[in-house]
Amino acid sequence: MRDMKLNFLENVIISIFRIITMLQKRDEYLVTIFRKNPSLFKDKGVMQEDMDRIKLELQEVCQLLEKEEKKHVQLKRTCKMVNDQFLETQRLQIMNMRRMQSVLTSEQQRQIAGAKKRTNENGT
């Protein structure tokens, strides 16, 4: 049992050394790349700055869009209320007009009918 544990620990240590060796090689490779072309890292920094700026702009645009959507919903609600109020006022005016027509004499009603007929003939 003890031999198995030692063997396992040896394998773990060997794996750790392999990982360390791989990381050292990677670091050497990155240093080589940096020496050959240092602008790559500068470009990466500039690109990161641009990306951060674009993310902020996108957030601002999304916020503006949300505000506009809320305003649009509010405007639609207001238009519906105004339209409903107009229709109700129109309905009440028509009722009042019919009440007034009901108390007119037959001569007055005949004159109104003639005026409507002339208006329709001129309008068409």
TrEMBL record:
<dbReference type="InterPro" id="IPR018514">
    <property type="entry name" value="Rabaptin_CC"/>
</dbReference>
<dbReference type="Pfam" id="PF03528">
    <property type="entry name" value="Rabaptin"/>
</dbReference>
<feature type="domain" description="Rabaptin coiled-coil">
    <location>
        <begin position="42"/>
        <end position="121"/>
    </location>
</feature>
<dbReference type="GO" id="GO:0008083">
    <property type="term" value="F:growth factor activity"/>
</dbReference>
<dbReference type="InterPro" id="IPR003914">
    <property type="entry name" value="Rabaptin"/>
</dbReference>
<keyword id="KW-0175">Coiled coil</keyword>
<protein>
    <submittedName>
        <fullName>Rab GTPase-binding effector protein 1</fullName>
    </submittedName>
</protein>
<feature type="coiled-coil region">
    <location>
        <begin position="51"/>
        <end position="85"/>
    </location>
</feature>
<dbReference type="GO" id="GO:0005096">
    <property type="term" value="F:GTPase activator activity"/>
</dbReference>
<dbReference type="GO" id="GO:0006897">
    <property type="term" value="P:endocytosis"/>
</dbReference>
